[in-house]
Amino acid sequence: MHIVVRVRVRTVRAPGADMREHVDRRGWRRHVLWGWLLALLFAGLVAPAASAPPSFVARCELEGVVDTGSGAYLADCVKRAEDGGATALLVRLDTPGGSLEATRAVVRAFLGSRVPVLVWVGPSGARAGSAGVFISLASNVSAMAPGTNIGAAHPVGLRGEDVEERGGEQLARKVENDTVAFAEGIARQRGRNPEWAAAAVRDSASVPADRAVELRVVELVAPTEAAFLDAVEGRRVEVAGGDTVTLATRDAHVVSLTPGLSQQVVHALAQPSIIYLLFLVAVLGLVAELSHPGAVAPGLIGGVALVLALMASATLPVRSGALVLMLVGVGLIIAELFVTSGLLGAAGTGLLILGGVFLVDRFEPGWFVEPSFRLSWGVMLPTALLFAGSAAFIAYRSAQTRKLPQRGGDVGLVGEAGTALGPVTPSGGEVFVHGERWRAVSFTPIREGAQVVVRAVEGLTLTVAESMP
């Protein structure tokens, strides 16, 4: 018989051991929890800094007249800078002025911008003339390169006439007062000198860069765009909505904003010389097509140039009478192709030159531009003379062509030589003339194989005679 003895061993723990083990586990969990919290906090601080895009400054430039195309481009630059999150918008300015309507659109965009607008008049030799004064005043911060000037915003005709001389005293006062109020309102909103802004309109005041800083017209003199961006670093400006923004432009990446195709085309066409040249190209193309019917290419080029010229004339304040003079000149030159007397062509060329002189000479109250903006004689005379010479050459060649003997048709066969294919008598025969077989008659008998010459053509019968050796 087997006896199984079961022994149960019980471990006796010292008093307080369970409590210490529980405390150790809670401490370990607390350390792990704090570690995770610190890791998440560190990741939250580092991740935004790593993913934050670098600051950039949007850049656009206005060179030339302020027209519908360039005005739309500057207003579009403001919107693109806001949508892209730019630190600021830098505008390089060099303009003689332009359309007041387009200028007002630019000013509205600048004053309503949520992105600080920085205007730099440069490089040296540039100017912010006439309507350009309003654009510069509307910026948050403005600077000028050495050797630049700003001012002369008095409304004038495109040849420099005073408004009172062209439109009367009442119109002059109305236009002037409206423009003064416009300039003063912009200057006060941007904290600049409203007295000088009024003087720029009333007295055509114009000042260089250093004097503009003294008069609080602009804030800085900066030789380059980079120097301008460095100088405004940390400056606080107020944008639309009353928000204050601290500029961070030093070492910022500059992104150039290019105009759209339609804006480029409209701006390129808004030049007096371009309008004049387009009219001349249109005339030359139409003249060439009329003198050589069926050539197609000259007529197509002339038609396109004429359409572009009419489109361009809508962007500038041109004289309607000047366009009429140019069109009459075109008609006289075309008539010269049929008359070839020389007088009509000379008169037409003279009217083209006269129309060019008065092309952009009409006073327009909504147009503020320096007197230097006009069709210069240096462009008009050489092109007009070149055109006159080309038209005279075409007329001369056309006259020569009309004097040549006719080579086609019945009349063209008279005088052509051929060969008798058989005996030719007054009753009939056959000859080979001009690569073809013809029925022929002759007043005197002609032997086979003899050389003949055509004397007359009656229907499909030739009258020939034997050619003498």
Automatic annotation (TrEMBL):
Pfam families in the cross-refs: NfeD, NfeD1b_N, NfeD_membrane
Cell compartments where the protein resides: Membrane
Major localization listed first in the record, in broad terms: membrane
Residue span(s) of domain NfeD-like C-terminal: 412-465
Superkingdom of source: Bacteria
Keywords from the UniProt entry: Membrane, Transmembrane, Transmembrane helix
Positions of the NfeD1b N-terminal domain: 63-220
Protein's UniProt keywords contain Cell division: no
The keyword Transmembrane helix is annotated on this UniProt entry: yes
Spans traversing the lipid bilayer: 269-288, 295-316, 322-339, 344-363, 375-396
PANTHER family: INNER MEMBRANE PROTEIN YBBJ, NODULATION COMPETITIVENESS PROTEIN NFED
Full protein name: Nodulation protein NfeD
Lineage, opening ranks: Bacteria, Pseudomonadati, Myxococcota, Myxococcia, Myxococcales
